Amino acid sequence: MPEIDFISSQIRKDDDRSTAERVRDRLELTGYLVFFFILFLIGLAIKDAYLLMGYLALVGAGAFMWRKLPRLDQRFRDLVQVHKGQMVLVMSVLLAVYPLIFAHDAYLVHLGALAGIFVIVALGLNITLGFAGLLDVGFAVYFAAGAYTSAQLAVIWDVDFWVGLPLGGLVAAFFGFLVAWPALRVKGHYLAMVTLGYGLMMNILHRNLKGVTNGTDGVINIPAPTIFGHDFLSPITVFGFTLPFQTNFYYLTLILIAITMLISYRLLNSNIGRRWEAMREDDVAAHCFGIDLTFNKVLAFSTGAFFGGIGGAVFAHMIGFVHPDNFILLTSITILAMVLIGGMGSIWGVALGAVLLIMIPERLRDFEVLRMLLFGLSMALIMIFRPQGLFPSQRRRRELESARVEELIKASGKENAHVRPVD
Amino acid sequence: MEIWLQQLVNALTIGGMYTLVAVGFTLFFGVLGLINFAHGEVFMFGAFVALTVSTAVIAAGMENALFIIVLMFVVSMTVSAALGVGMERVAFRPLRGLPPLLLLVTSLSIGIVIREAIKEFYPEGANPLAFFSPYSFDTFDIGNITISYTQAGLILLSILLVAGVYLLVTKTWLGRAMRATSEDVEAARMMGINVNRVIRDAFIIGSALGAAAGVMNGLYYQSIRFDMGWVMGVKGFTAAVIGGLGNVYGAVYGGYILALFEVLVVALVPNGSQYKDVFVFLILIGILVFRPSGLLGTPQTKVG
After folding, report:
1. Which of A52, A241, B128, B163 is deepest in the core (most CB within 10 A)?
2. Which of A186, A340, A417 lies closest to B105 in CB terms?
């Protein structure tokens, strides 16, 4: 299928550049990515919270300067746009060596795995919210559904993780399906409120339905997965080089992320993805063109929820303990924030948003008391000053720009119409 | 029978607070199309301001309890109104016209900021704090029901405030401008209404009423906590939805209906107090989905 190019980029896929130029482009892209990855690693390696704050400020200032150089920025975007395959390759290699770099520090590997879980969950919400435009402010429900299902199956019936994982996803998808029915009738704010109420309600049920969830005692002693007789709780030894056992979970999440990204990408560029986008832009028009809104909305909710459940199942088996406090409203807001900060609809952006939102607060543990305050403050600031997210998809960027321009026109029109102030 | 009457009195007290919070939600939604999740935190903030006032005034040697309470209300409502206006100016105005989700998340984030700021910077802010409530143990009887003076005062005050809002919205220029703005911003603008000013005034009124509810909550339960705003926010929002979001008249009865309903659930459902909030959320979802213009329904309400 020929890909429709909505973006006028300076480099074209089908142009007549020589092989040498293409190789140079690829090398240049690799250089950028490695540079960013090293910046990221330096940030992780900084132990002192104050120093880290300074570093983050420095990187933030750097990013700001970067935005002020439109040619460099555009160049990078073009490179990513044209050499997608190269980017995937480089990123895979870099992420695969991550545990080797931090082999001496099990905590950082654990952090990597935790971030990986939330990347999966955030990519799930990205399908519902970013692709189909359906606000879901209760995403922790699906995360919980996956975690509880897989955990209870393993603890009570001794079901293997590899069976519990997809089952967790399916049960979560069912919970998505449940909320999709009432959600069909509402839009915008009302939809957000319905899903928010759903999330709060389910959390109360987690606490009180002791027969299903063990209530506030939580589910404990969840066994770790095994694969081909290799227990996930034993370290990996390669060539006499020992990696901490968290590496198992790290690679598991990495593989699941790859699968999730692939599915996301294929969905977005498939018939279904196009229908979702049409629905997001204008559901009445979409309906007129024969798109079955009911089916597609339910599908979007369930698909997103499925990945939320997968993330939850891995989470349960990695931490070994599931408690209702893991699924409070703040969890839902954090997942939502990952998608919004990353940039709705942009697969790589959302993944990066999830990584940042897990790692930065974890590394700022020294600021324990101020952590939440900083979280709220930075969220509000990002929403106000960069509502399209840090790494928006091109289309989303344009949409918001045009919305803002319309508002500006309205505001300026008001100045003229405003002849005589009232009261 | 007495039990039911007693419950009715309790419902009236709580319902008054719900109503006051709901009026804020409904005003903001009317003029700005915004569900302001920081509103619950304004309620909590108001209670903390009042606590500060009472502590300071008592430390200064003031002893007239009634005067202290009046002062608590006045200062708390003023400061919170300023907070509401500041919030609108700094956070919501730059986002006008952008998709609702961004406004929603911004207001949630601002709520987190207010809550955490109180928790961290107010002395002992992370613990429940005792609230100055001198009349809570003086009671009088009507027939077989016992009412404390605090409760009676709160019921009266909430009815007064609600009546005041009602008059403001129906009888004054400002009220008419607000209704016009919530009906159609563009048309209101063409009629010479300064929409920015109307929005600002809506935030003043809404936040002041929310703060009043916060002080009342403190007086009623005699203790306040940094995290009480969130629950109240959801309840107040539900009350506003019951009355029809954007419809000020609706908010007035929504709060009382919600409170009555809660009391009934606790009384009739086994383990009711545990599942009380589940029912509240079910009502919220049910009404949003099946009767988006409110329980009693008013055709002129805008549905979005």
Report:
1. A52
2. A340
CA of B168 to nearest chain A CA: how many angstroms apart?
14
R_g of chain B, CA atoms, integer Å: 19
Residues A43, A56: Cα–Cα separation, whole Å? 8
* pLDDT at residue A372 tops 60: yes
Q: What is the pLDDT of residue A1?
A: 41
Reported confidence tier of residue A380, pLDDT bands at 50, 70, 90: confident
Q: Which of A201, A337, A380 sits opposite B278 (nearest CB)?
A: A201
Nearest neighbour of B112 by CB, restricted to A186, A375, A404? A375
Q: What are the structural domains, with CATH classification, of chain A?
A: 104-365 (1.10.3470)
Contact A421 B197 (CB under 8 A): yes
Is residue A100 within 8 A of residue A112, CB to CB? The reply is no
Cα–Cα dist A376/A363, whole Å? 17
pLDDT at residue A183 in the model: 80
Q: What three-state secondary structure class fits A377?
A: helix
Phi, psi at residue B139, to the nearest 5°? -125, 160
Q: Given an 8 Å threshold on Cβ–Cβ distance, is A198 in contact with B288?
A: no
C-alpha distance from A372 to closest chain B C-alpha (Å): 7
* Residues of A whose CB is below 8 A from B35: 189, 192-193
Average pLDDT, chain B: 86
**Distance set, CA A260 to CA A103, A263, B276, B300 (Å):** 26, 5, 38, 46
Mean pLDDT of all residues in A358-368: 78
Q: What is the pLDDT of residue A99?
A: 84
DSSP per residue, A75-101: HHHHHHHH-HHHHHHHHHHHHHHHHHH
Interchain contact, B117 vs A194, CB within 8 Å: no
Beta bridge partners of A237: A242
**pLDDT score for B302:** 44
Per-residue pLDDT tens for B124-167? 888 888 888 777 777 787 777 778 888 888 999 999 998 898 88
B33:A194 CB<8 A = no
Name the 3-class secondary structure at B214.
helix
Interchain contact, A137 vs B173, CB within 8 Å: no
Nearest to B98 among A333, A387, A414 (CB): A387
Considering only the beta carbons, identify the residue of B99, B102, B278 that sits closest to A205.
Answer: B278
Q: Chain B partners of A395 at a C-beta cutoff of 8 Å?
A: none
Plot region of A421 (φ>0 → left; ψ -120 to 50 → alpha; else → beta): beta
Does ipTM top 0.85?
no
CB atoms within 10 A of CB A100: 12
pLDDT digit string, tens, across residues A279-310? 888 888 888 888 888 899 999 999 999 999 99
B145-148/B223-224 β-pairing = unpaired
Rounded to whole angstroms, the Cα distance separating A390 from A352 reads 9
Which of B112, B122, B179, B291 is best to mutate for the A interface (most A CBs within 10 A)?
Answer: B112
**Cβ–Cβ of A193/B284 closer than 8 Å?**
yes
What is the spatial distance between Cα A43 and Cα A39, in angstroms, rounded to a whole number? Answer: 6
